[in-house]
Every structure is written in structure tokens, then in C-alpha cells.
Amino acid sequence: MIMEDQTAPKARKEGILIQELSDEVLVYDLESHKAHCLNKAAAAIWEHCDGTNSIRDIALAMGSDLNAQADEAVVWHALDQLGKASLLEQRIPQPDGKPRLSRRELMRKAGIAAMIAIPVVTSILAPKALASATSCGSPCTPASAECVAIPNCTFCPSTGPNAGRCAMF
Amino acid sequence: MRGDKERSLLLAAALRGIWRDDPPRLEISDAEFIEIIPLLLGSGVAALSWRRIRNTSLTNSPASADLLDGYRFYSLHNALIENQIAEVFARFRALGIEPILIKGWAIARLYAEKGLRLYGDIDLVVRPSDYETALGLLNSRKYGVDLHCGLSKFDAHPLDDLYARSQLIKLKDADVRLLGAEDHLRVLCEHFLRDGAWQARALCDIALAVESRPEGFDWGICLGENKRRADRVACAIGLAHRLLGARVAGTPVEARAADLPQWLVPAVLKQWRNPSVADHYPQELMINAMSNPLRAVKAMLNRWPDPVRATVMLEGEFNNLPRLPFQAGLYLWRMADFLKRLPEFFEKAR
Fold first, then answer.
1. Residue-wise over B268-289: b if at least 16 C-beta within 10 A, else e?
2. Are the CB atoms for B261 and A115 separated by under 8 Å?
3. Distance (Å) from the C-alpha of residue B39 to the closest C-alpha of chain A?
4. Nearest to residue B169, comparing CAs of B91, B123, B109, B103?
5. Whole-number Å distance between alpha carbons of B255 and B148
6. CA nearest B56: which of B83, B80, B40, B34?
7. A132 Cβ under 8 Å from any chain B Cβ
8. Rounded CA gap, B10 and B184, in Å?
9. What φ, ψ does residue A19 adopt, rounded to 5°?
10. Which of A45-49, A107-111, A134-138 has the lowest mean pLDDT?
11. Residue B128 class from Cβ within 10 Å (0-12 exposed, 13-18 middle, 19+ buried)?
12. Beta strand pairing status for A35-39 and B100-102?
């Protein structure tokens, strides 16, 4: 879908959970259950997408936030990624005649010193680290089916030394 | 190639003081750290490990990316769980039920950053008289709640006393009821040991709870009057001291920490060799394994209990006597329970 006002992108705020870390912002889509990681530049741009700021406004604000030079091409690069990640209310196509620059092209154009100002939105997958989140052996309600949701667990014994702990027997 | 035992020792070394706001310098080499990253991931300490290395050259190692991912996911997961905790407390209270939250956020809130310790499930304790109502609410909604009918499984203290010593801590708009610091430390210790001490993260929790205990912390309440249980708590804290460097000087458990049963530390290190769930809980139903003699034998061998869990489950003493009788006792108890339930399994399979 194309926005009527193509110069004032609006960040999606509904159905997402935002978690700010020291160097990046994490966004979890409660509908698609996908998680995204925005570096500082992408997060700054996303924050200024309030539906009123123009692309130029956003570039200026981002430059000010990060104390770095940012031009409209950088903002377009971010909007493209944010749109693909469904983090904008509507995806915004680039205006005619303005070719979309890749990250590599942006870096070449801006120089290595401006790398910090290159916005990056990455999708993150459930890591191995979560494997130990819940476990067979977790407390459970005897006779309930809750243990089935835990990998490799099947039932909640009501008797014996493991009563009330998800088990595999 | 390093052996399992050496890797467990490296894991313990990597976790020394890791719960502190300002963790001590890593005492192992970069190569050793990289080697044990799978152990760190499986042990539930990815985020803590990431914090420890994030300003070092170790972040250049591709293997460390999993630690960063862990930190990110713990942060998101915890944010989701915090919303759920606030919501569950509101819903329970609307029904006149006052739950107590244990483990999870109750201990994770003491770490320096939100994402450092995964909250996991929401462990809630309710009075036995409220249990059915609470269960009804949870069955009608999708919460990741482990509901406990009282705390008698973990603790011998009267529930009224636990409520009387409990505290309300703010989480978002909710006042979340937690155990008093003394009671919570005792429950953390008991849970760690009952689980067979295989989760290194849980020992970090114990170390953190000990070192961040509030002023006026009453060790008499924490250890309780039951000598055997008090000794178990002291041994769990002693493990946190011996393996992870938890500070226990000047506490009533100091002497015990210096004199743990000889079998205990090696038993825990053995548990830490394999931090995945699959290594600590049987992966095939006994009833299914019985269809094949070889699988049945394997399944029976897999059910041989570790000495820590066996001692706790059979209310044994943590002394220097051999653990074999406890392990055999628990094993036979479980097998007897299985045989008793056999008709029920056949009925279900029909």
C-alpha cells in the first residue's frame, strides 16, 4: 500500500514490544512473533517517524541524535528495512528517479567514519540460549496437560517422588 | 581436546562472580572461554557471559554471537513476562487470591540489568484453599505459569509465616508479592538441589541472593529449625562459595562451606558437563521403550538418579557416606511407581 503523504513515515506502535538496550533497540512483533534488532541509527530514524516529520526532518534529527552526518539516502535506506520488518504503519516506496542504495553503497558514499550512521535492521532468530528456558522437571499441576508444551515432556505425575514435576515416563 | 571434567571446571571459573555489578576479571584464556560457549549457552548464562566479554576482543569470535543473541532474547522474553506477571497478579487479586512469586523475576530483579537472567516461567504460590480457583483462571488463559499449591514441596515452614514475612515489590503498575529474602534464599537452595544441581545459573542466583541479602537478614529464619534442611541450605550456599566464589565470610554457613561432603563438588561438576535438559531427564517414555529390549535397558539406565537429587528426594543427610543407597532407593521407588501406573498407561494406549 502506498501512503498518501510519502514524505512523512509513521512508526508502528501497536502490537509490538520494544526493549531498549545500551547499543540497540529490540522490537518484538506480538502478531508475527518475529524479533528485530535496530542499531542506533535505525532506532533514531524509527523514533522520528511520527507521521509528521519529513524525510529531510528525520535526516537532520538523526544527525543531531548521533552527532553524525546523515542525508536522505540514509533515511530511505532505513525506511526500506523498517518497512520490510513491518515496523512502519505503511511501507513507503522511494520516490521515482531515486535509486535505492545498498548498505555497501551507502558506506562508500558516506565513508568509513560514518559507519555508525548507517542504519541496520536485522531479524533475530530464537537462539540456542533459549533452549534451557523451561525444562522437563518443571513444577506442574498433576493430571493437567501443561507438560506437553515442554519439549520432551509428556505428563505431570500425581504420585511418587517426582509428583508435581513434568516428567517423561 | 579437553575432557568433560576440565570443561566443567572452566565453566565454574567463567562464572566466578559473574552475578556482581562489576564482575571480576575473567581467569581463563580467550581460547578456553570460546571452548565452553556451548556450556554457557546451555547453562542459561548467555547474557551474563555476554556482559562479561562485550568490551573485549572475544566479541570478534563468531561463537560469541550466540551469547549476544541470548542477551537479546532474554531481554525481550523478560519484557513479555513482566507484562504477564503484572496481568496475572491483577487477575488473581480480582478473584481474591494473593499469590507469591518465587524464582524467575523474584531473583532476576536483583541482577544489574533486566536481560541478564532469563525469567523463564512465572512460578506462583497460592494457598491450598485458593488453588482450584487459581487453576481455573490459568486454564482459561494462556500464561506461562507454574502454579504451586502451597510451598510444602520445597519448604517446611508454615505458609502463614511465609506470607507474614513476604514483601510487596513494584513491577510496572503492579505490587508483586515476593517471599522475604530469608525464605526465598532457602527456597532457591532447595530447588537447586532437588533439580540435581545441574543448572549452573541457579547457583549464580544463590550466590547473588547471598551477596545482596538486605541488612538485618535473619539467618535463623533462613536456615530454619529443621537441622537436616538447614544443612542442605548451607551446602547449597557452600557450593556457590566453593565453585563460584560467593562471599560467605562472617555468615553462619561459612564453616560448612569450607567443609562440604567430599562427593558433593565432583557430583555437581559432573552434572555441569551436560547442561541440556535432555541430559537430565529421560527422553523416551518408559512404556514406549519397553517395546524393544535394548531400548528398555537404555531407558532404565537413563533413569539412574544423580546423587544430589537422590539425597534430597529421600531426605538424606549431606554427609560423607556413600550416595549409592540413596540413588538405588530413589531408582527403585521410581520403578515401583512406574509399575504401579502400568495399567493406567495400557489403558491410555488402548
1. bbbbbbebbbeebbbebbbbbb
2. no
3. 10
4. B109
5. 34
6. B34
7. yes
8. 29
9. -130, 115
10. A134-138
11. exposed
12. unpaired
ipTM of the complex: 0.74
How far separated are the first and last CA of chain B, in Å rounded?
A: 50
Which amino acid belongs to residue A8? A
Residue type, A125: L
Q: What is the pLDDT of residues A129-161, one digit of tens each?
A: 444 444 456 666 665 555 555 544 555 666 555
**What is the pLDDT at residue A119?**
85
In angstroms, the CA B332 to CA B337 distance is 8
- Provide CB contacts within 8 A for B336, sequence distance 6+: none
Place of cell 563460584: B244
Mutate to test the interface with A, among B281, B327, B338 (most CBs of A within 10 A): B281
Q: What are the contacts of A148-156 at 24+ separation with CB within 8 A?
A: A151/B277, A152/B277, A152/B278, A152/B281, A152/B283, A153/B281, A154/B285
Enter the C-alpha cell of residue B144: 506461562
Residues forming a β-bridge with A39: A24
* Nearest by Cα to A74 from A93, A58, A52, A51: A58
Best probe of the A interface among B277, B331, B333, by most A CBs < 10 A, is B277
Residue matched to cell numbers 528517479: A97
Nearest residue on chain A to B75, alpha-carbon basis: A19
Rounded Cα–Cα distance for residues B331 and A113 (Å): 64
Cβ neighbours of A169 in B, within 8 Å: 282, 285-287, 334, 338, 341
* pLDDT at residue number A51: 92
How close B60 comes to chain A (CA, Å)? 16
Q: How many CB pairs (< 8 A) connect A and B?
A: 135
Contacts of B67 in chain A (CB under 8 A): 129
> Does residue B305 belong to the interface with chain A, where contact is any CB pair within 8 Å?
no
Of A127, A144, A161, the CB nearest to B73: A127
Structural domains in chain B, CATH included, are 4-70 (no CATH), 71-269 (3.30.460), 282-349 (no CATH)
Q: Among A17, A19, A29, A37, which would you mutate to test the B interface (most chain B Cβ atoms within 10 Å of its Cβ)?
A: A19
pLDDT tens digit sequence for B209-235: 999 999 999 999 999 999 999 999 999
Chain A CA closest to residue B117: A133
3 state DSSP class of B53: helix
Cell representation of residue B97:
487470591
Answer for the pair B220, B233: CB distance below 8 angstroms, yes or no.
Answer: no
Give the integer Cα–Cα distance in Å for A139 and B267: 23
Give me the phi and psi of B143, to 5 degrees please. Answer: -120, 150
